[in-house]
Structure formats: C-alpha cells, structure tokens
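Let's study my pick:
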Amino acid sequence: MTKLLLIAIPTYNRASQLQTQLAWIAKEIKGFEADCEVIVYDNCSTDGTQAVISEWQPVFGGTTLKSVRNPENIGGMRNLALSLSESKSRFTWTLGDDDPVDEGTLAFVMQTLRKYPDLGLLYLNYSAYYTQLDQMNHDRWLPTDFEQQPVDGKLAFQRCIEGPYTVGGVIFLSATIFRTEFTQTALRQWPDSVKNWGGMAFWTGYCATQGDIFVTEAKHLVCVVGVSKWEGEKKIHTRMLSKDIPEVCFKLQEIGYPHQMSRRVIQRSLGSYFYWARDVLSYLRPFKDWPLEMASVGAFLLFSLGASVLEPNKLKESSESLEPSAMSYGTAQERDR
C-alpha cells in the first residue's frame, strides 16, 4: 500500500547530526507509523553513518527505516534528486540531517496532508541560525499573510520567490513537502536541474503549477546557515548569482511563470552580488575563468535593463495581481465553480 509520507534524509558524513534527527523522528512518528516511512540517502559516507542507522532500525518498530547507500559520492543535488525520484509515497519530505525541527511538526504535517491530499506543495515557514555569527534571525523566511488553507499554487509561489530571500527562500529542503508525482515529472522535464544549485526552485515551482500550496504562518524549524561546504566557497556563490539563478528563472518562464517575475528575481539576486563589492578582489583572485564570470554578470544586467525598455512593446504582463491584498486566492474547488 502506498504510504502518505516518505521522510527522505540526504546525508554525507554527519553521523552525529543524523543521530539527533533520527531521535527526533522516532519520538514524533508515534501514532503515524502506518502512514510513514523513513529512508536515509547516504552519499557514500566514510564515518559512522551506517552504524547510526543500524542502531535506530529496531527502535522504529512498525515504521520502515532503511538506508540507500550510494557506491560513490554523487553530489548533494543528485543525492537529493535520487530520494525524490525513487519515492513511492504520495508526498515526500526532504529533511536535512542537521536542521532542528519543532516538537509537534510531524503531527501537523500528517494532519494537513490527510486533510488536503491533493496539495501540490506544503511549505513550512522557518527562521535561520547563522553559525559563523552565532546569531539567530527570528524573521520568517516565507510570507506570512496567506490564509491558513490551500491557496493558488502559482500565485503563492511567485510571492515566495519574489520575497526578500528570492530563490534562497524556496530551496530550503527541510521546509518543503513535495507532491511526489509532480516532482518526478519536473525532474524528467529538466534532468539537468541536478547540475544547478538552485534547481530545487524549479521542482517546487512546477509542483505549484499542478496544485494548491499551503504556506504555514507559524515557524516550524530552523535553517542552519553556514555549515555546508559550498556556502563558504565564493566561486560557487558567484556562479549561483550569475548563472544558476537566471537559468532557473528562464526555466520557470518555460512552464508559465511571467517574465516580470524572472526579471525581478534576477535583479534582486544580482543586487545581493554587488552588496559584496568590497570583497570583489577576493572573489576574482582564485578564479581562472573570472572574465567569464564577470561577463555573465554584465550580460544579465544588460538583459534586465533591456527587458525594462522593451517590456511595454514586446512582453505581455501577467494579468494576475500579486499585491498582498490579493492573498485570498481560494482553493482549487472554489476557483472551478
């Protein structure tokens, strides 16, 4: 029988963090054992990850807890995509191995999915902890003015990705519960999304075109910022801003999102790039191909400026309003009347 929810945990060499996360799940899953399964996607860890999984398997009892171990490290994005592509459950929660989740969150997720089984996407609002600063940001990263029920997926996704954190706000894996079949279609539609650091924004954006979204007002977890290796590599950060984010935006346009949304997201993302202008020398110094990187930035700036000039004559503005006052989108059933 198909389970309602798969909790998929991609991991690599974080045995101690995985130990804590499995302890949280073992406590939270009581009462939902028949509807859940837990699979750890081990990206060829060399620490005690497999021993941790074996230790917890007897504890889970009636719930499936198993491990899929890659024979080699296939990269973080590919490992994440693997967990989604292999899921047999109706929904898939991609849960990070180190992200603290509030008590009672799994119960809320299960109750919401049971009540709204046709959701395209469930977003859990969250705050952030910056490890390098040892500082907590208590602001919610997703908009909080949505009705606490399913709303129009496409419009809600536009609000989220155009928020202050742009693409970063919609690619936090632990905050995202995917409708599995929609995500698998997205992966088939753009298989190279696994090569893009922001590719998850396309997966979630596609899910939003297929069904309603529920965005929680309450915070349910914390995004731990600064522990991933890529977050400290400025070349990767520059690539995300100059190549990956624009590419994601163009792919979202292909599935029906307006050009104006793409332009705003790209401009805001590039704005964050120039915020780091004081570090420009340290950005350029390690690059062998820095002229290409800077040319990419310039090209997208010219694209944005050119689009602004040509927009009245050559681009069709979406008729859908994105003003905050229009947040009562209604459910799919109400819109179909």
Summary: The CA atoms of residues 258 and 316 lie 8 Å apart.
